Amino acid sequence: MSASIELVRGDITAIEVDAVVNAANESLQLGSGVAGAIRRRGGPSIQQECDRIGHCATGSAAVTGGGFLPARWVIHAVGPVWRGGGQGEEKVLASAIGAALDRAEEVGAESVALPAISTGVYGFPIDRAAEISLAEARRFAAGARGVRRIVFCLFDETAFGAFERARQLYQL
User: Fold this and answer.
1) Can you tell me the distance from the alpha carbon of 99 to that of 4, in angstroms, rounded to the nearest whole number?
2) Beta carbons within 8 Å of 130's beta carbon, 6+ residues apart
3) Cα(111)–Cα(25) distance, integer angstroms
4) Helix, coil or strand: residue 168
5) What is the DSSP track for 9-33?
6) Residues with Cβ < 8 Å from 162, sequence gap 6 or more?
7) What one-character-per-residue DSSP string does 46-78 give?
8) What pTM did the predictor assign?
9) One CATH from 3.40.220.10, 3.40.640.10, 1.10.150.20, 3.40.50.10490 for 4-170
10) Which of 63, 127, 151, 154 has its CA 20 to 30 A from that of 6?
């Protein structure tokens, strides 16, 4: 079985999927950006669950319930802070994407939506992040067991354009 990969422009907190991925920090504090949107719409139970988990290493992912979101689960994937590209950031971003998709598989999600992880305040160049994210999704999709639909939900036209260019590159 393989999963489909889609791109949509919109609000990840409103998309109808089983799981949404949060661009998280290691302390799992829902601050700004995607995390802030998830906190505002999903309610306090998500942060409470994050507090119980406590920590998630960069390149890894943890799961909480979805609170008031349409999604049943939130997968908190910790991407790298961009430090110029010489400290393994690309490998760590691929690891975070892979870990998020693995967690989706583990909880039984058939559909999962991901943002452009690490491209906001963490400063990862959007074009390279798009290529890495889609390549990792394609690798995962080829062997997916339960996940049938992977959606990259991109908030603005810049991110959507970068992912569209990367999709054409990978002929997805």
Assistant:
1) 18
2) 116, 159, 162, 163, 165, 166
3) 23
4) helix
5) ES-TTT--SSEEEEEE-TT----SH
6) 116, 126, 127, 129, 130
7) HHHHHHHH----TT-EEEEE-TTSSSSEEEEEE
8) 0.96
9) 3.40.220.10
10) 63
